[in-house]
Amino acid sequence: MKISHSFDSGAIEVLSLDNPEDIRLRLRADNAAEFRQWFHFRVQGAAGRSLRMVFENASAAAYPDGWPEYRCVASYDRRNWFRVAATRYEDGQLIVEHTPEHGSVYYAYFEPYSYERHLDLVGWAETSPFAHVDSVGSTIEGRELDRIVVGREAPAHRPVWIIARQHPGETMAEWFIEGLLERLLDAADPVARRIRERAVLYIVPNMNPDGAIHGNLRTNAAGRNLNREWRTPDEQASPEVFHVRNAMEATGCELFLDIHGDEALPYVFFSTAEEVPGFTAESAARQARLVAALSAASPDFQTEHGYKPGRFGEELLTLASKWVAHRFGCVSLTLEMPFKDNANMPDGRTGWSSARSKRLGAAMLNAILAHLEGN
Amino acid sequence: MKISHSFDSGAIEVLSLDNPEDIRLRLRADNAAEFRQWFHFRVQGAAGRSLRMVFENASAAAYPDGWPEYRCVASYDRRNWFRVAATRYEDGQLIVEHTPEHGSVYYAYFEPYSYERHLDLVGWAETSPFAHVDSVGSTIEGRELDRIVVGREAPAHRPVWIIARQHPGETMAEWFIEGLLERLLDAADPVARRIRERAVLYIVPNMNPDGAIHGNLRTNAAGRNLNREWRTPDEQASPEVFHVRNAMEATGCELFLDIHGDEALPYVFFSTAEEVPGFTAESAARQARLVAALSAASPDFQTEHGYKPGRFGEELLTLASKWVAHRFGCVSLTLEMPFKDNANMPDGRTGWSSARSKRLGAAMLNAILAHLEGN
Amino acid sequence: MKISHSFDSGAIEVLSLDNPEDIRLRLRADNAAEFRQWFHFRVQGAAGRSLRMVFENASAAAYPDGWPEYRCVASYDRRNWFRVAATRYEDGQLIVEHTPEHGSVYYAYFEPYSYERHLDLVGWAETSPFAHVDSVGSTIEGRELDRIVVGREAPAHRPVWIIARQHPGETMAEWFIEGLLERLLDAADPVARRIRERAVLYIVPNMNPDGAIHGNLRTNAAGRNLNREWRTPDEQASPEVFHVRNAMEATGCELFLDIHGDEALPYVFFSTAEEVPGFTAESAARQARLVAALSAASPDFQTEHGYKPGRFGEELLTLASKWVAHRFGCVSLTLEMPFKDNANMPDGRTGWSSARSKRLGAAMLNAILAHLEGN
Amino acid sequence: MKISHSFDSGAIEVLSLDNPEDIRLRLRADNAAEFRQWFHFRVQGAAGRSLRMVFENASAAAYPDGWPEYRCVASYDRRNWFRVAATRYEDGQLIVEHTPEHGSVYYAYFEPYSYERHLDLVGWAETSPFAHVDSVGSTIEGRELDRIVVGREAPAHRPVWIIARQHPGETMAEWFIEGLLERLLDAADPVARRIRERAVLYIVPNMNPDGAIHGNLRTNAAGRNLNREWRTPDEQASPEVFHVRNAMEATGCELFLDIHGDEALPYVFFSTAEEVPGFTAESAARQARLVAALSAASPDFQTEHGYKPGRFGEELLTLASKWVAHRFGCVSLTLEMPFKDNANMPDGRTGWSSARSKRLGAAMLNAILAHLEGN
Ligand SMILES: [Ca+2]
Ligand SMILES: [Ca+2]
Ligand SMILES: [Ca+2]
Ligand SMILES: [Ca+2]
Hints:
4 copies of one chain form a homotetramer.
Chain A: E1 2-4, E2 13-16, E3 23-26, E4 40-44, E5 51-55, E6 73-75, E7 81-83, E8 87-90, E9 93-98, E10 104-108, H1 115-126, E11 131-138, E12 144-150, E13 158-164, H2 172-184, H3 190-198, E14 199-204, H4 209-214, H5 239-251, E15 255-262, E16 269-271, H6 281-297, H7 320-328, E17 331-338, H8 354-374
Parallel strand pairs in A: 3-5, 13-14, 13-15, 15-17
Antiparallel strand pairs in A: 1-4, 2-3, 4-10, 5-9, 6-7, 6-10, 8-9, 11-12, 12-14, 16-17
One calcium ion binds next to strand 15 of chain C.
Organism (chains A, B, C, D): Aromatoleum toluolicum
Cofactor (chains A, B, C, D): Zn(2+)
C-alpha cells in the first residue's frame, strides 16, 4: 500500500501507513503560510481493504468548523467523485473510513480542478466567436493570469468583472466559472445573448494558479491571502491582485463577483456590501435586485444563512468585493459555496459538487442579466 | 437531379424538375385534410448549382401570413440546419434560391423531429432514475401515446401536465420538450430537483405521432385538428385527445402547458386563459406569476405580441388549454414559438431553431417552479 | 400491458396478450412474400412481470435452423441491446422468457438499424472531405438508393463496390458498413488513407430500404428476393438491383463485397466464388489473398464453417456476388455474419452484435488494402 | 506580447521579445542534463501579428538532424494541433514564422501529453473490467510508476510488457499507448479479446513522469537517460528502470515493446535485436513474424529505413529492448515514431501526430496477436 501526492494540487503528510486500519496523516500547510485544510492524495494497493485514515491535526486546520458534517470526496477515475459517508470529526481528528473498490483511489477535500483543465477551459474560450483571452499579468511563479473577455468593448457595454479562486483550495469556484462560461458562450441561449449585447465581461477563472498547483488552501506562492490584499496589493508579493486591480481601473467596473467556497457553512450565500463605507440606499436596491434574481434562478442559493456582521473588522476594505464596492460604488458581492453540502437540498451521494457548482454558475447569468436590465 | 420525400415527415409535390433555376413545387396537403404548409424534402445531384424553387400554391397554405419574413431551413447532414437567406414570398408564391454545397441537401419548413428520435428520447427517459414511461393509449395507426412520468405520485405532489405537438408540423414543440426533459432529469440541477420533490409531471412529447410521420401540418391520420377536439373527443377519430383527457381526469391537473408553434407571429408568447368562463382574479394572479417567471428566465419570451382576444370564438373550449382551464380551474396555457424568428432577438444564421426551442424548454422549469412555490 | 410495432422495421402478430405468462405471437410475413423470421416489437406495462412469449409459427420461419441456440435481443433505451438468455426453440415454437426491468422494452430478432439512422449515416458521409453521396436510382416506394463514393474517380483508382442489406432483416450488414465507413473516412488511419489513394469505393449501405422499413426479412416492397435478381433484374419489380447493376457497368468493378447475415450458422464466413463459371487459378489466388488478410485482421472471421458446395444450384448466377464474379472476373464475395453468436468467440451478454459487426467492417479495410496492394 | 512556459512540460528560454519579427529564443536543457530539443511555450498578445521566432541554439540540440524537414506544431485550444509550414533550419538556427489567429497560441516540439492526461488515462483503465492498475515503484520526485495490468495472471497467459516514454519528450509514445489501450479494453474487438485470453499485459504508459513534467527531452529528474540504465539500474538515480526491471523478473517476459520517438528519421520503424548476443535463428523467425504482422496491419510502419547496425556500440545491453532480449530471450523491440512526418505517407496539415500515433498503437494489437498465436 502506498500514498502519493506528487501531482497538481496534491497535499498530505503521511505519518504512518503500517496499518491500513490506522493510517496516520497530517494536513499539510500552504507552501509559504500556516494555513492548512486542503488535502488531495492517492492511495494504491488497497482494493477491498477496509481503510481508516486519521488526520491527526485536523483541529489545527484553518477552519476547524469545517469538519463537523463534512464528508471526504473520493474517486477512482478522477471524473466521478462521491462522498465517503463514514467521515467524522472526533477529538480534534478527522477520521475517514472507506473500503476502496479498486487498486487506485483518490481522496480530496473537494473535487480538484487542475491547471491543465484551467488551460483547456481558457483554450476552449479562446476559440469561441464570443470571447478572447489575454493575460492580466504574471504570478510569482510565472504563470499567466488568464482573463477571458466576453462581449465587445463598446461605450454602451457595461464592464462586469468576475474573479474566482483567490483561495486556491476553493476549487468549486472554478467549476462555477466553467458552468457560467459554457452557458455564456452558447450561441442559442437568450440570457447569454442579451448579456453579450449589454456588457463586456472580464472573467479571471483562477486568480491564484500558483497556490492551486501547490495544493494550498488560502495563499499564493508567497504565502499571501490574496483576499486581504486589495487595499494595498504588492507587485512582488501579491502581483495577482496588483495586476487585476490595475486592469479594473483601466476598464472601470459596474458589477463585481468574487467566487469562493466556505469551509464551515453548509449553504450557498453572498457576502454583501452593506458594511462598506458609502453604501447607499440605491446601492442596497441594486444589490437586492441581483440577489432576488439569483434566488429565483437557483434554489441552491439562499439568503437566510451567511456571515455575521462585523466578521471582517478592520480588514473589510482589504477584501476584493468590499474594496471594489468602495472604489467603484457598484454592486459587488462575494459568492460562497459550501465544501460540505447545501443543507437545504442535501445530496447524500455527492454533497455539494462540481456539477452543482456548474449549475450555479449557469444560473448566475440570470442574476447578471437582471442587474444589467435593472438600471 | 432528383427530389425525394419518402422518409419520416417528408412532404412535397414536384411539378417540374426540368430546370434547376425554375423548379416547380406544391405544398402537399395533410394526409386526410386540406391543411398544407409543412414541407420536407431532399434534393440530390445539385451540388454547386444555383437552384430556384417555387412553391406555387404557397398562398393556399393554412397560414399565408406565415410566408412574409419566413426563411427556409436547410441541412446537408440533418444535424446542422441553417436558414436560406434568399427566401421570399411574392405574388402568392414562396421562392427559395440556394446553391447547395453538397450533392445531397434537405429543405424543410422547420427542423424536423422524427419518430425515431422521439422513441430514443422516450427510451432515454425510461432509464432515468427520475422517470418512467407508459402509454396513455394508441393512435389511429397503432402508435403509442408515450407519456413520461417524472417524480413520484404522492398526495403532496401536484399533478402537472405538459403536452406537445398536437399539430404535428410544429416540431419546435418536441424540441422544447427535449430541452425541458434534459434539464428535468438532471441530478444536479436544483430547479429540477425542487420540481421533482413537489410535483409529478405527466409529459406527452408528441400528441400526434401519426400526423408527424405523415408530414402533416395540423391533423392526425383521420384529418382531425386535435386542438379542436377537447370538448368532445372521439374515441375513433381523435383517440389521442380522448385518451389523454381521460388520463388527466384520473390524475387531476394543477398546471397545464400545451406546446405549439405559430406560423405567422415572429415571437414567443402564451395564449392565456382570460376568456375562459370561470377565470377569476385568483386565476389571473396565478397565471401572471408563471408568466412573470418565464419572462425573467428567458428573454426569448415576451408578452407584448400575441393573439387578439376573441380569436377562437365559439371554438374556445375545444382547445386543449382552454378546456383544461375550464375543467380543472388551474393555470393552463398554450405556448407558441415562431417558425420564423424571434424578432426581438433575431439570429440571421438559424432564425428560431431546435437549439433555441430546447433552451426555452429548459427555462420553462423556472416558471413551473415559481408556480409550484407560489401557492 | 400492450404490444406495439408501428415503427421502423416493427413486425409481429399478437394473438393473445391476456396472460403475461403465455403471450401468443406469430412471426409476420414480409409485406409481399411468404418469408418470415424478422420480428421487432415493443412491450409496455410489464415492468417487473415475468413474461413468457411464444412465437407459435417459428417452425414456419424461412430458416427454422435459425432457432436452435438463438437468443432474442432486447433493449430498454434502443441503444444498449442485450441477449435474453431464456430463449429456446421447442416443439416448433420459439419461447422467450424475460422479466423486464422497465415499463417499456423492445424485443427484436437482431439490433435494428433504422432508415433515419441510415439517412444520418449518409448525411455524415456527405460532409466528409473524402466522400460524396449520390443516388443510384429509386426504390419501388420512392426511396433513394444512396451510394457513398469514397476516393476520387481517376484512371489509376480501382473501382471497389460494397453493398449491404439486400436482405433487409440482416441489419448487421448496415452496422458493418457503419464501422467500415467510420474508419474509411478517418483522416489519420493509414489503411484508410492508402485505400483512398488507390481505389474509388462505391458503397451502398442499404440495398433495400423499403423492405427494411417494412420489417421484412428477405424481400423488397414487391416481394422480390433481391439476391436472386442479378441475372435479370426487373426495372419495375427489382429496381434496386437493376440500377445498381447498371451503375456497376458504368464504373466497372475490380472488387465486390456483398454484406449479409446468416440465420443458421454461428460463424462469420465468406460465400466464395469457386463455383462460378470462369473462376480460374488466378481468381483463386486473388480470392485467397483477401481471405487470408481478413483472417489476420479479425479473429471473428473464419474459414472452416460455411456453405456447402452446390447450395445455390441453378440460381447461382442470380446472386449478386456470383453474378459479379462472372461478369467482371474480379474477386467477388458474400460476407455472412451470424444472427446468433460467433461460436468461436461467444459473448454471453451480447451474442453477435452491432458493435462486433462494426469492428468487422473496420477490419475489412485491411483485407481490401491487401487486395489492392496484391496485384 | 508575452511568452510563458510555467505549465506541464513547458520549456523555453526567451532572450528577446522586443520585436515580434525577431523573437530570440533558446532551447532549454533538461533539468539535470545537457540534452535539449524539446520546447513547449505559449505566446499571448500576438493575434494577427506576423511572428518570426528564432531558436538560436538549435544546432546545439541533442539531434541537429532533427531540424531539416521538421515543422513546429501549434494549437490555440490545446486539442487541435497543426504544423507551421514556415519552419526552417538555417545557419544552425531553427526559424518558425507564424501569424496566430488568436491571442493565445501554444507552440511545441510535438503534441504534448500531460501528467494530468496520464492520470486520467490510468484512472479510466482502472475502472475497466479488463484491467487494474498498480504502482511498480516511485520516481525520484515521488510520482508513481503506474502499471496497467490487462488480462488475468494465469499459467497459460503469457507475460507481455509494453513500456513508453523512457525519453519524456517523446510524447508520441504515450499517445501510442492511449490508442493501444482504447482498443485493448474494448469489449467488442476480437483482436483485443483474443489477446486478453492468451496473455497478461503489463503496460507502463509513462516510464519517466518526472522528466515529462519538467519538459525534458531525454532524462529523468536526476539527469539519467533511462534507456542507458538497463544493465545496472541505480535505485537512487534511475529508480524507474530499477523497479520495472525487478517487476519483469517477477513476472517473466515473453514479449517486450519499448515505445519511442526519433528526432531525425521521418519513418516508423523498429530497432530490432539482431545484435544482441544469443539472438538465434529462432529469435529471428519470431521477430520477423511480429514485424510482418505490423507491416500488414499498418501502412505507416515500414522496414526499409531504420538505424544502422552498430549504432549503440558498447552501450547495446544498456538499452531496454536489448537488455530484455538478452535476459529473457524473447522478442523484444524498440518502436520508433517520427517527430517530423512519415515520409511515405506525408500529411501536410498535421505531420506525424497524436491521432496517427494512436492508430499505430491500435494496429500493434494485430502484431501482438500474431506473435501470441505464432508459437
Ligand atoms: Ca474563501
Ligand atoms: Ca399550433
Ligand atoms: Ca442473406
Ligand atoms: Ca527515444
